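Incident log, structure service

09:12 report received: a user says their structure output differs between two submissions of the same chain.
09:20 pulled the input from the user's history:
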Amino acid sequence: MLKTRFSRTTLFSLFLMGLGSVAPATQAQEPGAAEQVTQEQIRKEADQNIKYLSGHALRKAKTILETHGDFAPFGAALFPGGKVRFVWAVPPGSEQENINAALVLGAVRQSLQAQAQNGAILGSAVVYLYQPSESKSDKPQINVETEYLNGHAVVTATNYEQDSEENVTFGAATQRDYEPKVFVAPANTGK
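09:34 re-ran on a clean worker, output below:
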């Protein structure tokens, strides 16, 4: 189980500190005061938690594929203390034939975004299937868009194969940074 060393409030405060809203680091600490957390420590924790959440999401996708053969986009939320909960707009095993994947994807992101804006979660993952092209040489992918409250966002694309017995085998994976879609400032409604 993942253990976080910093509370969500501490990480958010430290994130704001990184934006230049604090006293200089040369300020003397009071005896018994908490040790200063460095930007490097925050980045490492964010990376570890993103990997942890992404791993949970990918394992869940594999289980659903092996059980049901397909799935609609879904989400995962990382709570303080390491608990992961899944977000379903369309439950696993439901009919996939007439699903509007873009609409489902938007609903999942919106649900996770509400939790992020309320400060309830540390990280989010949005999971969906992707077929690069109609070419038989291109393998299908499971894409996992993972974000963390410090603004770090990566998408991991993992190729997979599914045999006649529905067993899933993962192949090559690629990862790249992307623009956050869940941990973003609330839209100004003009009120």
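09:41 both user submissions now match this output. Likely a transient worker issue. Closing.
09:42 reviewer note: Residues 8-19+31-177 form one domain. The beta strands are 74-78, 84-88, 123-130, 141-148, 153-162, 168-177.
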